[in-house]
Amino acid sequence: MSNLVYNTIIVCVIFYLAFMIYFNIKNKKEGFLSFTDKNVSYGEFPLAVDKPILYGDYNVLAKPHLSAFNSSDIYKEYPIFPSNSLDINRIRYWTKPENGTCSRAEMCGYLYDEYTPQDIPPPPSVPGWNKRVNYYEEDY
Fold it and tell me: Under a CB-based contact definition with an 8 Å cutoff, are residues 95 and 77 in contact?
């Protein structure tokens, strides 16, 4: 076979793959549904306009507004424990989402209440039928 046949086959395969990729990606849409137990979609028109994004998970102030904070003001809110502390830096259930890591510093401070109780699920129980190696039940 000649080089012309090989080049034609390669071009046909590239066009075929390009069309397959195009038609597979063309109908994909990104969804922003909330998978919380409150069945709230953060893209719902009236809710997304009037309420902040964590509405329903955290208590919102009566009159939420932006603050005058900048990054040098809010970084102090992030908890850093000393090396001999029994607390850890990986806090899983925050009582307030404004923990010094706001992506816009103006969003920290005046949107959510100081304390919102969190629903912490119970830890999983030790499987009674299969005692695995290095599986320990922790006392809380």
Answer: no
Instruction: Provide the token pair at 90.
Output: 């990986």
Give the tokens for residue 112. 């959510």
pLDDT digits (tens, 9 = 90+) for 20-40: 888 777 666 555 554 444 554
> Looking only at Cα atoms, what is the longest distance across the chain?
78
Tens-digit pLDDT profile for residues 58-76: 888 888 888 888 888 888 8
Answer for the pair 66, 110: CB distance below 8 angstroms, yes or no: yes
Q: What pTM value is reported for the model?
A: 0.52
* 111 vs 66: CA distance, rounded Å: 7
CB atoms within 10 A of CB 95: 14
Tell me the three state secondary structure of residue 11: helix
First to last CA, the chain: 75
Say if CB 107 and CB 65 are below 8 A apart.
Answer: no
DSSP secondary-structure letter at 97? Answer: S
